[in-house]
Amino acid sequence: MILVTGGAGFIGSNFVLDWCAQHNESVINLDALTYAGNLENLATLDGNPAHVFVRGDIGDFGLVARLLAEHKPRAVINFAAESHVDRSIHGPEDFIQTNIVGTFRLLEAVRAYFGGLNETDKAAFRFLHVSTDEVYGSLAKDDPAFTETNRYEPNSPYSASKAASDHLVRAYHHTYGLPVLTTNCSNNYGPYHFPEKLIPLCIHNALAGKPLPIYGDGQQIRDWLYVKDHCSAIRRVLEAGRLGEVYNVGGWNEKANLDVVHTLCAILDELSPRADGKSYREQITFVTDRPGHDRRYAIDATKLERELGWKPAETFETGIRKTVRWYLDNQDWVKNVTSGAYRDWLGKHYGECA
Ligand code: NAD
Ligand code: DAU
């Protein structure tokens, strides 16, 4: 059995769903169910004994220690985090608590558990930490893409907290011999993406007749990867990654934000045209830029491709079309996650543009 943390969030729930569809190995899913965690993502696993959900905090040493002792997982995969850059700018505290203190306590519980395993179980055990390309900072237009040896230069409270957690994971390998693996991935998109992030927010706002808010000049570049491809990379690193190593994960899909939103508008114009016959592009609105906004991310995933033979299955064009289709087909999911506290966030962050 494996223990997944944060498995009710966007990437974690996609990972758990894919895992249960492809493996005969059970999953314990530990998630605090913050605003970003949603058991509806996992509804298809209701009644499936291979999925055991536990509501709790990765920072709760006693709970994690109990789960490890009871279920004896052969791997821990750590997705749990506060993940939204804009929220980290409004209030960094939760990011420090979960991403740094929480990861530290999780590592402590895993270290104690690992110390008590027999030699065979020790040899098989893995702690896989899911991290981000944002720890490497921002690239200039012509800089080469980030490799695993790039310096850490985080610029937001979110990326700084993820960088700190990556350093702790590294230290637990070098100091205590914990068999760790770290993945640093680019921007994901796909089903169950919470509509505070650019792609699902713009799909949701477009259909609701609201502004599509573009920060600054919209020429910031992100490197997009379909979420299922991120999940397949994590499975491959878990299976064959070298202990203590870091693997960058990315889809070679650099796009300027404005181009991404133009693509979304074009697909929506085709699949769900506006009643007035005009393009959704009319709803694009330029708003104040994000403070400290990183200009460009780009991932060089050569190491993962060469050493472990991983390749993404989707191009941006195929993945984005599937994603728009998923949101059109799952309007109830969107309705449920955009009620209540979500509206408070929009009002606080976008003001009258919400
Ligand atoms: P998300 O915000 O959608 O989900 C995070 C999940 O973690 C939620 O289910 C939440 O309830 C849970 N959680 C939060 N605090 C917790 C705590 N203290 N204890 C237990 N559970 C807790 O995030 P995501 O986009 O799915 O990202 C998952 C991981 O992947 C994060 O570590 C993130 O840094 C990393 N990552 C994300 C992206 C991306 O594009 N979304 C890209 C690269 C890496
Ligand atoms: O690069 C990986 C990271 O990608 C992950 O580590 C983070 O968890 C994940 O949230 C994501 O971070 P970004 O800040 O890149 O994602 P977001 O969707 O918030 O923004 C994408 C780009 O779009 C970014 O340049 C900011 C811009 N943007 C975003 C929003 C929400 C807008 O222009 N308007 C918006 O309303």
Automatic annotation (TrEMBL):
Q: Which InterPro entries does the entry mention?
A: dTDP_Gluc_deHydtase (IPR005888), NAD(P)-bd_dom (IPR016040), NAD(P)-bd_dom_sf (IPR036291), Sc_DH/Rdtase_CS (IPR020904)
What keywords appear on the UniProt entry? Lyase, NAD
Needed cofactors = NAD(+)
UniProt key word Lyase = yes
Record CDD domains: dTDP_GD_SDR_e
Instruction: Tell me the enzyme class.
Output: lyase
**Catalytic reactions on record:** dTDP-alpha-D-glucose = dTDP-4-dehydro-6-deoxy-alpha-D-glucose + H2O
Give every NAD(P)-binding domain span: 3-323
Name the domain of life. Answer: Bacteria
E.C. no = 4.2.1.46
MF term (GO), any: dTDP-glucose 4,6-dehydratase activity
Assigned protein family: Belongs to the NAD(P)-dependent epimerase/dehydratase family. dTDP-glucose dehydratase subfamily.
Q: What is this protein called?
A: dTDP-glucose 4,6-dehydratase
Q: Which gene encodes it?
A: rfbB
